[in-house]
Fold:
Amino acid sequence: MNQATLHQLKVFEAAARHGSFTRAAEELFLTQPTVSMQIKQLTKSVGLPLFEQVGKRLFLTEAGRELFATCRQIFETISQFEMTVADLKGLKQGQLRLAVITTAKYIIPRLLGPFCQLYPGIDISLQVTNHERILERMIGNLDDLYIMSQVPDHLDINFEPFLENPLVVFAPFNHPLAKEKNIPIERLGEEPFIMREPGSGTRRAVQSLFDEHGVKVKVKLELGSNEAIKQAIAGGLGISVLSRHTLLTDAHEFSILDVQNFPIKRTWYIVYPAGKQLSIVARTYYEYLLEAAKKIVAQNLTPLSITVDRLPE
Structure:
């Protein structure tokens, strides 16, 4: 295989993993024509087709499957080398790759700020996605650490709880139920309801509680982000269940309803695959998160006000 570049291999690996040139382009911040061109050039270099399209679906050929496995080996070797170099340099330089569940985007970026101030030479890659995509990334060993609310029981992982993530009932600030106390959970069935998309951990937790109590809500909208749901609630389209941490920036627009069986108690976990060797950068951020969470709980702080001293290198 002559003249294949590392960039072409990265484009191919993303397209093969997603089974889609479009999703590969989104992940790599490229245009779809650029992805197609890179794949075409790599195919010419290999001398065999790498993909085949059956109907609207894209599949790897035998050569494509072999190249995909080879790419994973190459990138893992490069990652190990980068980790070794980062360890040799200490915490002056390095990369930290994080993937966090959607609800955690309200707190993790705010905790990244002080960390980056302590260690300005570290580059951060942050992926925010839902539970199913987090699992895909974990299986692919694409990140150093994962932040999630529901720990998978079918994967061999290391995990540690670090902060509570209660789910509460959100409504517009002027909702008729806003001043009522101890609202029966069945009452939610009378309100237009806004749900997260299928695959969301929040949706599974909410649906499980409703099923337990025989509550059937009238789902008016299904939306794929907490921000979209908050805008819909503020616009009077219905009520929903979201993480209490989503109120960090605009609490004045919403009410938290006092509903029986709420809040749903959930916890954020720091997770990584068992057997994975954490770099000194990842290990330091792991310890930083635990320390920051302790201060939030002990002092009733918000992530806006948390400060953590430099950890020992």
Summary: The chain has a mean pLDDT of 86. DSSP finds nine helices and twelve strands in the chain.
